[in-house]
């Protein structure tokens, strides 16, 4: 068991091992990329390697430190324990005084967006100032072993004022600690934070790798593995968690909205479709927008007449091909710009249905 077991993005693994081997570990790392490609997993594995009692540029998985840090692999139960300990009725002051910190070894912390409550979590969990101030204090403590590591998952959820508090740590970085920020994109963070981090962007995995992971770690079989790998778009994490039939249906629903808008008719049905999508609270707005991005990327390749396009949505190839014949690249680019605006609005709690209605209407009028 070690870093070599991490699947995909070998160049990142090799760079991190090289830094450990040379004892030139950066004080701040930024892991970006799609959800489910292993950013948090590699951050946790790096924390094991940086603190392992037996190895210098990897982890043994057998020493006490490795075993304790490995408990961070599934943070769900640790979050549940932390929220239960703080109490369901904690007010805003209590949330900041008792920050949610996941710690299974003194030298390694995982900080995740705080859902505040266990039974009725907030709609948009975020990293809070109490958590960041706790990291700010602890980062300068001397490690028990070789190094301290702080993993900040969902770094993009910090409000700008909270991000400015975190920036103070990077302006005077601790000598014996590494902070790992995890976010979908560097553009979702303050430029002053990004400029002080060594950046690693995680690419989606080839479909064959995703299928191999599904065979090893799930009970899925045959055709279901293939379809899940196709729908996951290179994200093994999403592939393992997804309801394949429901995910396929959501893609079809999103494509139907784009098709009706491109045809420029049937506004009543078009808005009924957007209303149904807006009512789906089991899927985050950001995830819904990612579905649109994937469909529009395929459409852009098809409308540009690229030979042998690498479609993200192969099961919908026939429907996408038909739509590409009634839209052009300019229409697709307008649609992508519209989704970009919705993505920016999601951070400001934009009304989901109004946003989808506006996007569909604008594309119908410009169809």
CATH domain class of the largest domain = Alpha Beta
| pLDDT averaged over residues | 89
Low-confidence stretches: none
What is the count of β-strands?
6
Counting DSSP H or I runs of 4 or more residues, the number of helices is 17
* CATH architectural category of the largest domain: 3-Layer(aba) Sandwich
Number of domains: 3
Overall spatial form: globular
Notes on the protein architecture:
This protein has three domains: 3-201, 3-Layer(aba) Sandwich (Rossmann fold), CATH 3.40.50; 205-241; 243-365, Zinc Finger, Delta Prime, domain 3 (Up-down Bundle), CATH 1.20.272. It has a six-stranded mixed sheet. With 367 residues, it is α/β, with parallel strands linked by helices. The chain has 17 helices and six strands. It is globular and about 65 Å long.
Structure summarized in a few sentences:
With 367 residues, the chain is an alpha/beta fold.
List keywords for this structure.
single chain; 367 residues; alpha/beta; Rossmann fold; Zinc Finger, Delta Prime, domain 3; 3 domains; 6-stranded mixed beta sheet; 53% helix; globular
